[in-house]
Amino acid sequence: MSNYNTQNIGILLSYLIHPMLVSFVTFLYLIYYSNILIEDKNLVFTLCIIFSTILPIFTFYILKKNNLISDIDVSKKEERLLPMAFGSLFFLLGFIILRTLNAQMLIQGIMFCGMINIMLAWLITKQWKISIHAITLSSSIAIFWIFGYQNFLIMILILFTLIISRVLAKAHDLTQIIAGILLGIISTFISYSILFL
Length: 197
Description:
By secondary structure, this protein is an all-alpha fold. It has one domain. Helices cover 76% and strands 0% of the residues. The longest helix has 25 residues, at 41-65. The N and C termini lie far apart (48 Å).
């Protein structure tokens, strides 16, 4: 298989585990299919998706249209800071609205952890390119673990797919991916455990 084909496979896999898609699936599953008691599931899900997925996608579109980012993956380290700042702001606003509506604390916690993780990634990215894919996916894995979905083998396979996809796509080296995985897991466990459990 040619180098071009393997890179395209990595890119395709990367889109399947894109941070915005991971957020969407995490909220979708936990709000509608878990045993969490949520009074107005449709409202809570809509708010979560607006602030974790729709607004960030719209922001990427505007930034790309105005040539503030060169590509939709924001592959240049210095271009990542502005979209990450907006992302952190959106998660903060989502958290505040969920808190104001007295939404389920566990769902508030996911939004809060998203904000903290983006802020930490922003601070690191000022000096060094870390994998946002890895932070988001590993954070979701940590959240599912906290919620009792503790299938270690499946989680390892998902993380292995993440590593392979980002390396094949030539988006990150192994150190940047492992650092993202560790940051996502550790930050989420600490934030969630201290503030929301």
